[in-house]
Amino acid sequence: MNERAGVIFGLIGVVIFGLTLPATRAAIVGLDPWFVIYGRGLVAAAAAAIVLAATRQKWPPRSRWLPLAFTAACIVVGFPLFATLAMQYVPASHGSVVLAILPLATAAAGVLFAGERPSFGFWLCGLAGSLAVLVFALMEGSGGAQGVQLADLFLVLAVVSAAAGYAVGAELSRTMCGWQVISWALVIAAPALALLFLVTQPPVNWNAAASAWTGFFYLALFSQFLGFFAWYRGLALGGVAKIGQLQLLQTFVTLAAAALLLGERISRLEVAFAILVVTIVAIGRRMRVQRQSVR
C-alpha cells in the first residue's frame, strides 16, 4: 500500500517537474537568468516561511541541520543554477535528453545516501529505460548532433545536484513530513540567496512579457516548492530507487506539455517510445530493492 501511494505522489511530482525546463526557457526570454536563479528561490523561501509560521513549526533538531543544508545546496541552489545556465544555450528538448540519466543518478544517490540496495534486475531496467529515452531523443534529432558542449556539462551538474538532493531529502522525509523538508531547506538557503542577489544585483525587467513572469512564478511556487511536497512523500513511501525511475516519464510529460501549450504535434514514434518506457518502469517497480529500516 505504501509503495502504491508512493507511485501516486511520485507521478504528481514528475508532472510538476516535467514543466521545469520549458518554464525556465520561457522565463529567461524576458528576464535576466541570474534574477531567475536567485529570485525563484527567494519567492519559494517566502512561501515556505509563511507555511511554517502558519502551522507553528518548531526549528528541526540540530542533527538534521546538516542534511537540510546539503539538500538546500543541491535543490535550491545547485539544480536551478545549472539548469538555468544550460537553458541559455540549448532548447528544453535538448535538456530533456541529458536529464534522462536522472533516474539512474537518483538510484545511485539512494545507494550512497539512503542505504538502498537495488537488485541487478532493477539496475538493468533503469539502464534500459534511460537508453530508450536517449535513443528516442536522438531519433527525433533533439540534440544528438550538437556534441559535447558547455550546456551539457551544466546539465550533468544539474543531474548530480538533483539526484543527491532527492536522496538526502527523501531520507529526511522518512522521519519528517516532505513539505517540512523542502520548507526548511528553502528557509535555510534564503540568507545565502539574498546575499548573492544583493551582491550581483541582477536587473529586473518589470515590463517582461506575461509568459516570462508566468514561467518565473511557476518555477518558484511549483518546481521549487509545491512539487517537492508530493515528490519527497513519494520517495519516502516507495523508496528512492524505485520511485526515482518514474522520472523516465518526465521527458514525455514535457512533450505532452509542448503539444498542449505550444501546439506541437506528437508523432507515432513518440507514442511508441512512451509505451515502451511505461512498460519498462512497470517491470522495474517489481524488482527487489532492499531498504534500511527507519532509524
Note down, in words, how this protein is organized.
With 295 residues, the protein is mostly helical. The protein has one domain (2-290). Helices cover 76% and strands 1% of the residues. The protein has 13 helices and 2 strands. It has helices at residues 2-17, 20-30, 33-54, 65-87, 92-98, 102-113, 120-139, 150-173, 178-200, 210-238, 240-244, 250-262, 268-285; strands spanning 117-118, 289-290. Strands 1-2 form a two-stranded antiparallel ribbon. Helix 5 (92-98) packs antiparallel against helix 7 (120-139) and helix 6 (102-113) packs across helix 8. The longest helix is centred in the C-terminal third of the chain and has 29 residues, at 210-238. The radius of gyration is 18 Å and the shape is globular.
Assign an overall shape: globular
Strand order of the largest sheet: 1-2
Determine the number of helices (DSSP H or I, runs of at least 4 residues). 13
Structurally, how many domains make up the residues?
1
H/E element order: HHHHHHEHHHHHHHE
Oligomeric form of this entry?
A: single chain
Helix content: over 70%
Mean pLDDT: 82
Give the SSE map.
Elements: H1 2-17, H2 20-30, H3 33-54, H4 65-87, H5 92-98, H6 102-113, E1 117-118, H7 120-139, H8 150-173, H9 178-200, H10 210-238, H11 240-244, H12 250-262, H13 268-285, E2 289-290
Antiparallel strand pairs: 1-2
Helix pairs in contact: 1-10, 2-5, 2-10, 3-4, 3-9, 3-10, 4-8, 4-9, 5-7, 6-8, 7-13, 8-9, 8-10, 9-10
